[in-house]
Write a structure and sequence with these properties.
Order of helices and strands: HHHHH
Strand content: under 5%
Number of helices: 5
Structural class: mainly alpha
Distance between the termini: 40 Å
Length: 109
């Protein structure tokens, strides 16, 4: 269960960040990307608990593994590994810029 939630999370985060560029090639993906971007933006802004994190934590607990970082999936798997934790808000702003940039690219295609 935890592995499935992890895989789903990775795909969702990737689609949230890069889905707008993919929509330039496959236009019908724009609406699902808008939904993903709104959800991702909400999660970043409010720090709300994600249902996929709850599922992953349930699976991890059942397997005797420690749960995710209390700040969630991105903090657990990305912060401190791909960029320093102190850069978290900066990275969120860059990701937001990528999303908006992908929408501009879509509009100008």
């Amino acid at each position: 269960m935890a592995l499935g939630a992890l895989a789903t999370h990775l795909v969702f985060v990737g689609f949230t960040v890069l889905g707008g560029f993919l929509a330039c090639l496959v236009p019908w993906l724009l609406l699902p990307h808008l939904g993903a971007a709104l959800w991702g933006g909400r999660m970043a802004a409010t720090r709300a608990a994600c249902p996929l994190s709850r599922i992953e934590n349930w699976g991890r607990t059942g397997a005797g593994r420690p749960t995710l970082d209390e700040r969630g999936f991105v903090a657990h798997y990305f912060e401190g590994r791909f960029y320093p934790r102190r850069w978290a808000r900066r990275v969120e702003l860059v990701v937001g810029g990528l999303v908006v940039g992908s929408w501009l690219a879509f509009a100008n295609r």
